[in-house]
Specification:
The chain is built from twelve helices and 14 strands. With 471 residues, it is α+β, with helices and mostly antiparallel strands. Helix 2 packs across helix 4. The protein is globular. Bound molecules: alpha-D-galactopyranose.
């Protein structure tokens, strides 16, 4: 078993124990789904275009136990708890009923679980009984690495397994997208859940969002001495804020004005001058971005990883100037990273905050991070608490002070950094959900498993024992 596998098993086992503590019975199993970083292909998914994300080792784990007949709860009662709480203390709890769920009926983090139940009922004809669920995630919240999709995927994989629904990865991707769009009410595309469900170790996922055909394209970063540095601006963003939906609507209008079913169907020689200036810029981004994804995939297939740098940077310029979803903090990170020697850099995810990524040589991690931190300081941006660097084996998942930050005392402040490179030096890219399903029965009871950052966080107060009732 690799170190990463052991760490995950340790997390899963700790979560199972915590679940038993909280709910008074062992879970039926523990399931895992990763977050993702999008290498390139931004806002193309809902335009039937191409995307190239990769799944990361940071992941959501859910321990689940289907409701047994009993006195304590109604048969369709869901008791859900998350180890993430805004105050950093205790658990966040939620309760809902699986029967008669209507869009919007559950808010907050538990809407991800409720949305999946809703979508399974509405689109897969599944009748989901009540269950107890304990969530623990290492996907950072607000960094644009899809923490909520990871939760949705973990929940649907768990329910698919427990209820014997027989859904495949694509069906689950579509259902979690329906959960987002219809239940939670955010008009997101299908990229994030696909990356989580279909991602493979050491590869990026090339996905054609029209045909939903996918290919694992090798991303041997470590073999080339490279890394993808994820730089979190700590600028909060939300896809329900309106900017995301407005971009989607512009794209729809653009396609209609060009008499195309979607922007994917716009011919190369289409006359874009019929579009108003704003729509023209939006459309130009999508057309160019689709081509860049194809070009990056081609370079990766030819093992020319370094050559993708300039395409990543071109993507950022287009997102900044044409699609207008960047922000000063993201632009600063990209510019500072490039000035410090990154081979390419771009914002990643939906934009308006979240993270930028930089393709760097591994030996530049410190200098690029320090340069970005300095640029943040120079511009007077709000600086935050920690750098995170995920390196295996020595520093896996541990918070560490960054040498580039000259704080005299207290926590080191600055944007958040995660570094993801395949294999040596960092936590590996993940393997896809199938090999990441853990059942309590297969976890074993060994105490020799290495401690994980999660296990530390799992030591939290017990629930009060009063039964939760949803009615
Ligand atoms: C968010 C959405 C995705 C995708 C990206 C932008 O992450 O969830 O579906 O649209 O933004 O590429």
């Amino acid at each position: 078993m690799s170190t990463a596998d052991s760490a995950v098993s340790g997390r899963a086992e700790a979560l199972a124990r915590h679940f038993a503590d909280v709910f008074g019975a062992e879970p039926d199993g523990v399931w895992r789904a990763p977050g993702r970083v999008n290498l390139i292909g931004e806002h193309t998914d809902y335009n039937n275009g191409f995307v190239l994300p990769f799944a990361i080792d940071q992941s959501a784990l859910v321990a689940v136990r289907l409701r047994r007949p009993g006195l304590e709860c109604a048969a369709d009662a869901v008791r859900a708890a998350s180890t993430y709480s805004p105050t950093g203390q205790g658990l966040s709890r939620a309760a809902f009923s699986t029967g008669g769920l209507e869009p919007g009926a559950v808010s907050g983090w538990a809407s991800s679980a409720a949305g999946v139940v809703y979508a399974l009922g509405r689109h897969a004809g599944a009748s989901v009984p009540g269950f107890d669920l304990l969530l623990d995630s290492t996907v950072p919240v607000g960094a644009g690495l899809s923490p909520s999709h990871a939760v949705e995927v973990a929940v649907i994989v768990a329910l698919n397994d427990l209820l014997g629904l027989g859904l495949d990865g694509l069906e689950m991707a579509r259902l979690t997208q329906a959960a987002e769009n219809e239940f939670i009410g955010v008009p997101t595309g299908i990229m994030d859940q696909s990356a989580s469900l279909l991602g493979r170790e050491g590869s990026a996922l090339f996905l054609d969002c029209r045909s939903l055909e996918s290919e694992a394209v090798p991303l041997p970063l470590a073999a080339h001495g490279l890394a993808v540095l994820v730089m979190d601006t700590r600028v909060a963003h939300s896809h329900s804020d309106g900017g995301y939906g407005a971009r989607r609507e512009s794209c729809r209008r653009g396609a209609a004005a060009l008499a195309a079913q979607s922007l994917r169907e716009v011919p190369e020689d289409a006359d874009l001058s019929v579009l108003d200036p704003v729509t023209l810029r939006r459309v130009r981004h999508i057309l160019g971005e689709n081509q860049r994804v194809l070009d990056v995939a081609a370079e990766l297939r030819a093992n020319n990883i370094e050559s993708i740098g300039k395409l990543l940077t071109a993507s950022h310029v287009s997102l900044r100037d044409d699609f207008e979803v960047s922000c000063p903090e993201l632009d600063t990170e990209v510019e500072a990273a490039l000035a410090a020697g990154a081979l390419g850099a771009r914002m990643t995810g939906g934009g308006f905050g979240g993270s930028a990524i930089a393709l760097i040589r591994q030996d530049k991690e410190q200098s690029v991070s320090a340069a970005v931190l300095a640029a943040f300081r120079d511009k007077g941006f709000r600086r935050r608490q920690y750098f995170l660097s995920f390196r295996l084996p020595e520093q896996a998942g541990r918070r560490r002070k960054d040498s580039g930050a000259k704080e005299k005392s207290g926590p080191v402040k600055g944007p958040l950094f995660l570094s993801c490179a395949e294999g040596k030096g960092f936590e590996p890219l993940v393997r896809g959900y199938r090999t990441l399903v853990f059942k309590t029965s297969s976890i074993g009871r060994s105490d020799n498993l290495p401690p994980s950052s999660l296990a530390d966080r799992c030591i939290s107060p017990k629930f009060d024992q009063s039964p939760w009732r949803t009615k």
